[in-house]
Amino acid sequence: MIFKAVGDGRPYPDHGLQARDWAKIPPRQIRLDELVTTKRELDLHSLLAKDSTFYGDLFPHVVHWQGSYYLEDGLHRALRAALHQRTVLHARVLDL
Questions:
Q1: Strand 35-37 versus strand 5-6 pairing type
Q2: Looking at residue 53, what is its pLDDT?
Q3: Cβ atoms of 2 and 79 closer than 8 Å
Q4: Residue 45's pLDDT is what?
Q5: pLDDT at residue number 44
Q6: pLDDT-derived band of residue 16, with 50, 70 and 90 as boundaries?
Q7: Which residues lie below 8 Å from residue 90, measured CB to CB, with a gap of 6+?
Q8: What's the order of all strands across the beta sheet hosting 27-31?
Q9: What's the pLDDT score for residue 80?
Q10: 1-4 contacts at long range (C-beta below 8 A, 24 or more positions apart)
Q11: Gap between the Cα atoms of 38 and 40, Å rounded
Q12: Strands 5-6 and 27-31
């Protein structure tokens, strides 16, 4: 199993963070098997594109809420890490 669970949407309250706010959170390691995704579907074309991780934040965004870690942004990066047989990921983690 890659992730703890595959979710459908964000169960946590809106945090109101913009991209520049996320950039202020230092990245840290988190295990892939602790993450709950917030998206059920993935665009395979985006995953396999050479520049799919070129735009946007270098680190995925994770929200820690009520004891669970929700992968809000960066599903493609997380799956690429899993395909490279990595068990951890560097991500920006927001504690709510």
A1: parallel
A2: 55
A3: yes
A4: 72
A5: 72
A6: very high
A7: 27, 28, 29, 30, 59
A8: 5-6, 35-37, 68-73, 61-65, 88-95, 27-31
A9: 86
A10: 1/33, 2/32, 2/33, 2/78, 2/79, 2/82, 3/32, 3/33, 3/35, 3/36, 3/37, 3/71, 3/78, 4/33, 4/34, 4/35, 4/36, 4/68, 4/69
A11: 7
A12: unpaired
> Which pLDDT tens digit goes with each residue over 43-95?
777 666 665 555 566 899 999 999 999 999 988 889 889 989 999 999 999 99
- Tell me the C-alpha distance between 12 and 31, whole Å: 20
Rounded Cα distance, 28 and 59, in Å = 9
Among 86, 50, 87, 46, which residue's Cα sits nearest to residue 73?
46
Amino acid letter, residue 80:
R
